[in-house]
Design brief:
- This protein is an alpha/beta fold.
- The protein folds into two domains: about 210 residues, NAD(P)-binding Rossmann-like Domain (Rossmann fold), CATH 3.40.50.720; about 40 residues, no CATH class.
- Strands 3-2-1-4-5-6-7 form a seven-stranded parallel sheet, with helices on both faces.
- Strand 5, helix 5 and strand 6 form a beta-alpha-beta unit.
- It is globular, with a radius of gyration of 18 Å.
- Bound molecules: nicotinamide-adenine-dinucleotide (NAD).
- The site of nicotinamide-adenine-dinucleotide has 29 residues, from helix 1 and helix 6.
């Protein structure tokens, strides 16, 4: 599956899952914009890709900032010639039981996952519709788009919400050849997850090893983490698929943790 001639914007691509998706897209021929709060990190990823012969740029973007998103997408279109693929991936995790969750933390998480998905979608759709060449929008959901866990109320609410957003984009975008889908990974060992292991150990009063075995991987078929490459392969499939046949869908890649 090739992405030659396509331009992809990946948010939160200075690290973890987004970074690997940017690398895989570049290896398959796409020009890639790495959009992240962390400008130095985004530029470092872009430099690595350029050194490997790809076309890539790093740009500063806080996905919760309307102006930053609109201006950032305009800049990508100007520098790379358009935007064909959006991977709305930027995210954070905050764990706490509901009765202790601060409203500020709730709003912070919802803003990045939900408002960020809306703002980046709107900005990219405007360009995709005007250009008339269709497009692919991919949301980074989670098994937590389908299933709940303790301590993660806003994350689970937000990740479920992305499936609704993808379905609306699928319906509205169809006339313009724009498809929207959601990837729902199980646990992947990125900085986002590494941070949660000691936090959950403290909250539940168990060891870090027990958090991994008894909570994170307990319901997988083989006790394995999902890998960056597993998720990037799904992102490539959704980006490269050619027709509206595959739209409004969510795919779970989780070693069988969640089976639908
Ligand atoms: P990560 O912490 O490695 O990377 C997240 C990136 O998002 C960072 O580069 C960070 O700077 C960026 N970011 C944070 N806030 C931002 C903002 N406001 N604007 C722009 N960029 C911002 O995390 P990851 O594990 O790679 O997570 C990426 C996505 O995958 C998230 O949406 C997460 O919820 C989802 N996800 C992760 C896992 C997992 O196990 N790691 C599983 C399922 C889903």
């Amino acid at each position: 599956m090739r992405l030659d001639g396509k331009v992809a914007m990946v948010t939160g691509a200075a690290s973890g899952i987004g970074k690997r998706i940017a690398e895989v897209y570049a290896q398959h021929g796409a020009a890639v914009a790495i959009a992240d709060l962390n400008l130095a990190g985004a530029q470092a990823v872009a430099s690595e890709l350029v050194a490997q012969g790809a076309q890539a740029i790093g740009i500063a973007m806080d996905v919760t900032d309307e102006r930053a998103v609109d201006d950032g997408v305009d800049a990508i279109v100007e520098r790379l010639g358009g935007v064909d693929i959006l991977v709305s991936n930027a995210g954070i995790q905050i764990v706490n039981p509901l009765e202790k969750f601060s409203y500020a933390d709730w709003k912070k998480l919802m803003a990045i996952h939900v408002d960020g998905a809306f703002l980046t979608t709107r900005a990219c759709l405007r360009h995709m519709y005007a250009r008339g060449k269709g497009g692919a929008i991919i949301y980074m959901g989670s098994v937590h788009s389908k299933e709940a866990s303790k301590l993660k109320a806003p994350y689970i609410t937000a990740k479920h919400g992305l499936i609704g957003l993808a379905k609306v984009v699928a319906k509205e975008g169809a006339a313009y050849g724009v498809r929207a889908n959601v990837i729902c990974p199980g646990f992947v060992r990125t900085p986002l997850v590494e941070k949660q292991i000691p936090e959950q150990a403290k909250e539940f009063g168990i060891s870090a090893d027990e958090v991994v075995k008894k909570i994170m991987l307990k319901d997988t078929v083989d006790g394995e983490f999902t890998t960056l490459d597993d998720v990037a392969a799904c992102a490539l499939f959704f980006a490269g698929f050619q027709t509206n046949a595959l739209t409004g869908q969510s795919i779970v890649v989780s070693h069988g943790w969640y089976m639908q």
